[in-house]
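Tokens in:
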């Protein structure tokens, strides 16, 4: 048996591998360089410590993790080739790519790295994190000792994800640079792992972690490269952990030449609250690209401020407006002097005091449509801001510290400006309107009957306005003087919509985004004549297009602003797009069944100035889980600590009531988590489901049936391991509803919009059988005795709850009294619950119950109300609540306790286009 102290001598053979030298020792075991005789290459071998190698459960878990990690194939990640066992040594060992180079830790010991050296290294580390995170793999132990720099400058990140696999026992060490990985066996979520000096606060507190822990460690590594000192230090492990959870880095240690964007990046990475921390390695990479790009914008360095302490914004406002005024004056003077290389200037602009950008109401506190619109001369910007739920348009001159409200724009949204700069168009109260830019009495242009108004509007020459209609999902044009709107784009398929039109310079064509309602990544930028006809593709994977004054096209791709050379006459791009800005707020990056699809929060002026709201792609609202009893009393159902930042979409209780599987709508995507109710721990369940979040427990709670592959397949997965099995696939959208004790799976299959059929998949069969035809039913739920099926069906313009024999054919009966959705059986099968709707308030939730008797026949009593709540819980085609085993409590998303977020600032970059490639 290989112990932690045993060393393998050169010449020792492990199967086909011959040891040549020892090159290190880590928490998992000794590391050796070896020669692979079968493939004639050098490899690195880690011989696992006996704690791992001789524990069957731990070794099995390690093998599963290693298999997942072996799938990583990235130029900046050292690859795992395999996990093998040596009978001679009675131990297991990992075979990995051998990386010949210097550890980053050794390089830092010689002193701080120059900025022009550190940033390219940091960029490659961010690329590695980005690639792994896209595969659902978290490093958990990123540190300089796990990063190597090859002689040609290529960076390789080592030991990706192995911290989770190894789970060594807790220990301490005097050397924090190489301190052991810590663990707490009480955590089932992949354990609390990390090296002390680079451990995130949530790791240190013993909470479940996600990719944001890697972003924290990345910030620590970057800080250390630039300063030569650790961001969080101490005399021992305890002191270091105290610094991690309670102290700020020494921001003064950063070199004075550190770009403002890098300072901002560090502050965002080292935010102690993971909900406020940078959550995307791609965003870090983009920020670094901006800092190292040739001709990068001027970095206006102010006194660095700790991320956890607010900046004195009264000073910032004065500083910001001074910078803007200097920038405007400087640009004008350079223009008069004939300069061709104006300097870009960054600044931040606040909403008027007491206002926030966008909406600010209980349901939509953040912008759902673009609140920014430049005037044609680029000297002013119209801003939609709100206070106490009432939006208002303001005009802000870029050389003035104050914003002026535009009279007549109370309750106005979606601003856009006329080509002559004299009028502002907007939407309010189901109408498209215009008002003089100096304020006055608004004039109605045409009705726009939609709850959320148009998905963008643009004003071209010849008094023509084009807007994206919410209800029909296509583009319309109308005269700015009023009249009947005329559709200009073809009617898209049910699962797509046309959004964000923007006039090209000829005034005859508009750019617009053809976006999938079902898949936020399925967007394409098109060009359309205002006289109709077929649209033409301009750019794939793009939305929110803007033709720039420097001959480039700007567009968004999942929160990243990119540009490419653009010929406006032919509406074609040339060459590869280049990233220009990361972390631009963008609506609708939330996966399936989302009404907002891709609108960006930005505008570019005719003079090349960019205004953009930075932050999460979509502002999410944290809605915790809550129990509601039959008296309408509300109690928390899951701990807030460790919960992901987002809104609860639906929840399902395990058969033994010990766990809850929850679909969470985060700012980036839909995620699936498991709450362990006995230990109050949240665990990400990356193999549970894709962004559909469609999951059903098996009867014993040991497995789940879930949709994978963008909703086109159904897999059964182990609830505690990454093991999974494909059981059904189709070319239509699939939604898992229920997994019966006899192995049958109930699911929906349809077009992804409104039409579905209810199907049953028999065990061992890969072909489902229809039990309720297309368009007749959704939201199915089978009774505990598997003899009756409850589902929702349209009737007389509304939805009702129906029960029919399962699997059919047989009788059926309407159970709900009037409208009803989302049926659920009690555990004993004697009650059927559903959500009803009152006649006076469509937004309230009324929980209804029907006493039933079933067997060979089905009988239903009179529906009666259990309780009602003032917030809506109508869940759509899939039930979002669940019922306790005894029927005394109901599990809901507690919208009344939602943590609201708002945005009150946007970034301004004067002469932004001057920084772009030519």
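Residues out:
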């Amino acid at each position: 048996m290989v112990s932690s102290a045993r060393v393998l001598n050169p010449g020792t053979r492990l199967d086909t591998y011959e040891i040549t030298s020892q090159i290190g020792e880590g928490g998992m075991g000794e590391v050796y360089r070896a020669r692979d005789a079968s493939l004639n290459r050098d490899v690195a071998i880690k011989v696992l410590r006996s704690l791992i190698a001789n524990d069957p459960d731990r070794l099995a878990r390690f093998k599963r993790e290693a298999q997942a990690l072996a799938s990583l194939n990235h130029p900046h990640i050292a690859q795992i080739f395999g996990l093998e066992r040596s009978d001679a040594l009675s131990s297991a060992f990992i075979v990995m790519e051998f990386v010949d180079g210097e550890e980053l830790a050794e390089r830092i010991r010689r002193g701080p790295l120059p900025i022009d050296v550190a940033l390219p290294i940091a960029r490659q580390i961010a690329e590695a994190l980005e690639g792994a995170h896209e595969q659902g793999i978290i490093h958990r132990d990123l540190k300089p000792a796990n990063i190597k720099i090859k002689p040609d400058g290529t960076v390789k990140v080592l030991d990706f994800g192995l911290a989770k696999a190894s789970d060594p026992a807790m220990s301490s060490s005097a050397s924090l640079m190489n301190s052991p990985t810590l663990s707490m066996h009480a955590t089932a979520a992949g354990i609390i792992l990390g090296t002390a000096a680079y451990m995130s606060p949530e790791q240190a507190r013993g909470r479940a972690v996600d990719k944001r822990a890697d972003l924290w460690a990345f910030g620590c590594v970057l800080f250390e490269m630039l300063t030569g000192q650790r961001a969080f230090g101490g005399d021992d492990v305890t002191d270091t952990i105290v610094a991690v959870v309670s102290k700020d880095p020494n921001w003064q240690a950063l070199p004075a030449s550190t770009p403002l964007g890098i300072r901002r990046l560090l502050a965002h990475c080292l935010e102690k609250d993971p909900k406020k921390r940078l959550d995307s390695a791609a965003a870090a990479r983009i920020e670094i690209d901006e800092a190292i790009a040739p001709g990068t914008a001027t970095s206006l360095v102010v006194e660095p401020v700790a991320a956890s302490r607010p900046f004195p914004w009264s000073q910032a406002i004065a500083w910001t407006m001074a910078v803007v005024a200097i920038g405007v004056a400087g640009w004008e003077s350079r223009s008069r002097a004939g300069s061709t290389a104006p300097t870009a200037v960054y600044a931040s602009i606040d909403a008027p005091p007491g206002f926030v950008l966008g909406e600010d109401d209980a349901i939509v506190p953040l912008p759902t449509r673009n609140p920014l619109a430049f005037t044609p001369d680029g000297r002013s910007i119209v801003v939609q801001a709100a206070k106490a739920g009432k939006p208002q348009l303001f005009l802000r001159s870029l050389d003035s510290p104050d914003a002026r409200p535009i009279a007549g724009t109370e309750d106005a949204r979606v601003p856009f400006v006329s080509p002559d700069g004299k009028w502002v168009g907007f939407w309010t109260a189901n109408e498209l309107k215009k008002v003089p830019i100096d304020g006055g009495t608004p004039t109605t242009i045409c009705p726009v009957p939609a709850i959320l108004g148009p998905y963008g509007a643009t004003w071209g020459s010849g008094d023509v306005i084009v807007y994206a209609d919410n209800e029909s999902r296509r583009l319309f044009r109308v005269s700015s003087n009023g009249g009947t709107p005329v559709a200009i784009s073809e009617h898209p398929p049910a699962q797509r919509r046309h959004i964000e039109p923007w006039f090209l310079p000829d005034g005859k064509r508009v750019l617009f985004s053809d976006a999938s309602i079902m898949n936020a990544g399925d967007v394409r930028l098109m060009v359309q004549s205002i006289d109709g006809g077929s649209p033409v593709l301009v750019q794939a994977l793009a939305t929110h297009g803007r033709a720039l004054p420097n001959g480039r096209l700007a567009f968004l791709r999942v929160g990243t602003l990119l540009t490419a050379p653009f010929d406006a006459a032919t509406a074609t791009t040339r060459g590869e797009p280049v990233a220009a800005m990361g972390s631009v707020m963008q609506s609708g990056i939330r996966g399936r069944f989302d009404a907002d699809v891709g609108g960006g929060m930005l505008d570019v002026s005719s003079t090349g100035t960019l205004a953009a709201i930075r932050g999460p792609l979509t502002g999410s609202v944290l809605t915790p889980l809550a129990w509601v009893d039959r008296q309408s009393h509300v109690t928390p159902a899951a701990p807030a600590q460790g919960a992901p930042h987002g809104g609860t979409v639906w929840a399902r209780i395990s058969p033994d009531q010990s766990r809850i599987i929850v679909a969470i709508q985060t700012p980036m995507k839909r995620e699936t988590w498991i709450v362990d109710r006995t230990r109050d721990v949240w665990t990400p369940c990356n193999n549970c489901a894709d962004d559909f979040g469609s999951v059903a427990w098996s009867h014993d709670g040991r497995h789940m049936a879930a949709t994978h592959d963008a909703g086109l397949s159904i897999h059964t997965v182990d609830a505690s391991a990454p093991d999974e099995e494909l059981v059904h696939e189709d070319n239509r959208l699939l939604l898992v509803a229920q997994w019966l004790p006899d192995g049958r799976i109930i699911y929906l299959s349809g077009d992804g919009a409104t039409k579905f059929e209810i199907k049953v998949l028999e065990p061992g069969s890969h072909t489902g059988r229809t039990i309720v035809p297309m368009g007749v039913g959704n939201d199915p739920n089978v009774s505990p005795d598997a003899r009756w099926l409850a589902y929702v069906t349209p009737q007389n313009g509304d939805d009702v709850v129906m029960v029919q024999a399962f699997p059919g054919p047989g009788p059926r009966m309407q159970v709900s009294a009037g409208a009803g959705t989302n049926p659920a059986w009690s555990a004993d099968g004697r009650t059927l619950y559903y959500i009803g709707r009152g006649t006076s308030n469509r937004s309230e939730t009324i929980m209804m119950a029907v006493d039933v008797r079933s067997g060979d026949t089905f009988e239903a009593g009179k529906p009666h109300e259990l309780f009602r709540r003032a917030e809506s819980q109508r869940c759509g085609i899939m039930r979002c609540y669940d019922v306790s085993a005894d029927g005394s409590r109901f599990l809901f998303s507690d919208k009344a306790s939602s943590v609201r977020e708002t945005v009150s600032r946007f970034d301004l970059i004067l002469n932004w286009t001057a920084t772009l490639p030519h």
